[in-house]
Amino acid sequence: MRKQGYIAFFVGLCLTAALCLFVANEQQRQRRDIFRRDADKIIHATEVRLRTYFDMLLALRAMYAHDDNVGRDEFHRFVGALDLARRYPGFQAIQFVRAVPSLRLAAFADTVRGDTSLEPQGYPQFRVHPATLRDTHFVIEYTEPLAGNENAFGLDLAALAPHLRALELGRDDGVVVATERITLVQDASGQPGFVARAPIYRNGAPLATVDQRRAALVGFVAIVFKVNTLMREVLEPALLPDLYVRIHDTGYLKDGASQAPGADNLLFDSGGRIGAARLPALPGLSASASLVVGERRWLLRVDGHDGARYSGVPTPVLLTAAAGLIISALVGALLMAKQGLERSLAELARQKDNADAAHADLSAALASLQLAQANLITSEKMASLGALVAGVAHELNTPIGNSLLTATALGDRVADFERKLNGEGGVKRSALVAHLADAGKACAIIAASLARAADLITSFKQVAVDQSSGQRRRFLLEELVRDVLATFAAQLRHAGCVVEVEVEQGLELLSYPGSVSQVLSNLINNALLHGFDGSGGTVTIHARRQGGGEAVLRFADNGKGMSERTLRQVFDPFFTTRLGQGGSGLGMHIVYNIVTNVLHGRIEVQSAPGQGTSVTLTLPLEAPVWEPSAS
């Protein structure tokens, strides 16, 4: 027994060493996973922020598509309406650069000096600088805000090689082009910056060739960036102590974008000044991505170093080693005593049986939950179908019933008229006139009732088609809202609910009307089932455009509202306050998934007990194409 005890102790030590190695590797894998998520988050946030700014630049160019001679006051009002200082704080300035032939340079300067559209005294100190001799000058004519950017006002970019190269590329290719790393003339700190510009051409001019684009060039709209300011909007301060983020500009794509990363093309370094002491990157904690920014390629690199977030703390390994040593010693001691070993083996067998039984119970519970989930989803769909069928039957009953009653009455009148016609006394003129009048009224009633039925069937058909298909098409939001309300007219009247609709006229979306209809249907069902609880009330549906290519749809009721706890869990699957009373707990979960995944929008719910509920949907006017993920 003693020999077996020593063998068991030695085997335990080997297993402990293997387990320590496994724990250490698992720790390292977890660190890599955390770092990968952090790096992906930084890369994605940078791409999204740049794409947002470039979309805003294209919006500025769209203003010139309406009128290629936008005045200073119009430019100032348009930029002010964008509320950039609050919504896009990462930019330095927004500018308009005018292409001025050398022969018109003096006249152009006089025109700017005499421009009183914003300042009553004009700009008497305006001058084009630096002085240079060129066939065409590219002069910054408008800059917003002007305060803090005075040095850029009147700057001739044709005299600055990095700017000139970007301007010529943008002019010839007709695309948004960014400069290389530059030092902004209006920034005394000397921080790295860059400028993104989009060309503006004369409206109606041919643009098929490079020569045509050069001849039609009016100027450029531009956004000026300080990279440090831009990245402050992207990086979370909590991550900075544990990783370094560096961005290098490797050049224009058409030149191969092959510049090696170095101090000359470093755009951003979260680790501070160049040459400062840096902690080494931990093994496996490095990631990089290539970003295309205005026809240039940026190389973004993220390195994680030893710190609170990614530190390789040996505590779990030490605890594992200590536990393994103790267990090995105990097992060895137990093996030295036959009776103790038998008891241990019996206990281990019992624990194994318990574990197997628990595993079987958990498997059965999981299967039951999956079956319950499938049944609840099916119930939700059948409930929606039942509500739709009930609405259709109730709405069509009235016009079709009227038509049937009128047709029956008309048939009786015709039979009576036929008896009088075949009788001995004949038919008097007054009887004939009365019969024709009655027949005309009956036909009018039948025609009006059937027209009403046809309109209702059209609305029901549109809603049914939209809800059963994933077709992405253009539609007017007002028409869709009224079509959906038509299917719920019976339930709303029965519940004593009043609906107020205020949708901006002409509000058109390129999206998925079936998904929007499903969202509205679920919200109406929720209001009837949970909000009013049979007591009646008012539902308001408002919709309007808002800046940034979005529409805001607000659905509100003045029902009993929700508690704070219910509001926190309103989107959780299978959460309902009326379990067993018609609520499945999937309605708002489905709404959230449709709005965020299919429609690429945002949803916000506000409610308080006794104060009703308000659901605000922010939807893009043009939803991206949705591709369901494979299950």
Would you write up a description of this structure?
It is a single chain. With 631 residues, the chain is an alpha+beta fold. Among the domains are: 162 residues, Beta-Lactamase (2-Layer Sandwich), CATH 3.30.450.350; 163 residues, Histidine kinase-like ATPase, C-terminal domain (Heat Shock Protein 90), CATH 3.30.565.10. It is 50% helix and 20% strand. It contains 15 helices and 17 strands. The strands form four sheets. Strands 1, 2, 3, 4, 5 and 6 form a six-stranded antiparallel beta sheet that branches. Helix 9 packs antiparallel against helix 10 and helix 10 packs across helix 13. It is flat, with a radius of gyration of 37 Å.
Condensed summary:
The protein has helices spanning 2-66, 72-81, 84-87, 105-113, 161-173, 210-216, 227-232, 315-335, 338-422, 429-468, 477-487, 489-494, 513-532, 564-568, 587-598; strands spanning 91-101, 136-144, 177-178, 182-183, 192-201, 217-226, 243-252, 266-269, 281-293, 296-305, 473-476, 497-503, 508-511, 537-546, 550-557, 602-607, 613-620.
Largest sheet: 6 strands, antiparallel
Helix/sheet category: alpha+beta
The N- to C-terminal Cα distance equals 56 Å
- Percentage of residues in helical conformation: 40-55%
Total DSSP helices = 15
Please mark out the parts with pLDDT under 50 across 5 or more consecutive residues, or reply none.
462-469
Give me the CATH fold name of the domain at 469-631. Answer: Heat Shock Protein 90
CATH-level-2 architecture of the domain at 469-631: 2-Layer Sandwich
What's the overall average pLDDT, rounded? 84
Strand percent estimate: 15-25%
